[in-house]
Amino acid sequence: MTSVSLALEETTTQNKAKCNHATNSLHDLKRFRLWVIHTLLSLSITCAMTDDFPRSERNRKQKFVLGVSCVSLIISFIESAVHCFKSTKRYFVGNLFEFASSFILLLLWTIASVVILGPQNTIGNAIDKIGVEFIYNANLYFLTWLSLLSNLHLVASFFHHVKSCDPRILGWILLFFASLILLGISSYLKNGVCSSLIEHEMRCRRTKYAISVGAINGIVCVCVLGLCYKKRKEEKRGNKLSYAPQINLFLSLCSAGLYGFGVVMLTSVGGPARSLGTIYFTTWIGAVLSSLLFLDSFKEVFIGEDDAIILDEIYEKEIDAGNCVYDGMDTSTKVFNKVFPCFSRDEIELTIKSEEKGLHIYEKEMNNFRKVLGSKHPDTLTSISNVAATLRQCGHFDRARPLYEEALAGRREVLGQNHRDTLVSMNNFATYLTQQREYDEARSLYREAISGRKVVLGEDDPETLESIRNLETMERFYSADTQKSSS
Length: 487
What we know:
Layout: H1 14-52, H2 60-82, H3 86-92, H4 96-117, E1 125-127, E2 133-135, H5 138-156, H6 167-193, H7 201-236, H8 244-266, H9 278-302, H10 305-319, H11 331-336, H12 345-372, H13 378-393, H14 397-414, H15 420-435, H16 439-456, H17 462-486
Helix pairs in contact: 1-2, 1-5, 2-4, 4-5, 6-7, 6-9, 7-8, 8-9, 12-13, 13-14, 14-15, 15-16, 16-17
């Protein structure tokens, strides 16, 4: 079979394979570094435990922590080693085995962190006579935090390819765990601080405030995550929760306010987090996370549609040029998801120039396909669609339209209405129509593509979710244009 040029947005083989291979290789290298770091951290914790707690004096909790660090050291060393050899890398890297190893370690370190950071256990931190938490063993305390965070990073690295993953969900999950830790440690300290001494009444009140912050923010996080789940389900059905961003903004404002005031109340001289400890760190982590989530929600609610359209025009050519940046997702979706391209303006200009120079090559190839294979051959239709995309990227919209129409009509006739390539053509032509402000026809094609992709690929497939997001973005543009024309 004759080779086909596949350098554009609807490319499904060569260029995407190269992009995916390069991306996967980079993530494999990233995980290798994380495994090496985790090996060193586990070794350090193992040495600290054996040195600070002699064998004859260890209690059950200390033995458990030492066992977790030893298991973590062995697994991390093995995973680091298999990354170094091609023969083992093929079977143990980037698959279920590696993910299961990292997830098991995450569960173990989560439990071990509760034991080490619990002040009642006097392993990483402890409580003084007046009920203030302090770091008892700095090495164990900070190494435990680093191990837990590196393990979280390791597990998260397996989800880099999930296009529908919202980074804000991870932020709310982290805030939820920070709030739980703050609630647990503050509840434990409360009995000692508030028991008898009158002079510690202010610290008692502030400890109770820390409990309130942890509890309220935990509930807020659960509500937001539930709202995100409901929003995702409605998007799969083609619906939209118009009130979700406003509720998200209100809840994130409450969370940021509680943690912001908590920084002042809890970390001051009269607060329970006046010295370095778990409450101190969780308060600051919660304040930073809640502030970032609030700013993100604020941008989602108040960003102007006109500004988004301007951003779309600036970045359109590069994102739609088939680079290794969220393959298949159009510019508008990226703008509204706050995902910006990783290319400079110089690189964008260079790409546009190279497209202009390469346009005649694609056109020549298309003409050759027409002569040799015929206008209705699948390879010819792919070449036609590629030329249409190149013309659009170069700004030749009038010349691009008939080719988009020809590719779509040909694929419907030859491949069938619900063939994957036909659905790709529907999505791409709808994107073109959206940019030309022909919203009615674009809406019809997007809905047709969504319906077909749900049947062929499933509701959770990234391509199905892509079409759903594209339709939602098109509706935003339509609303913005309607408001502008009415005013």
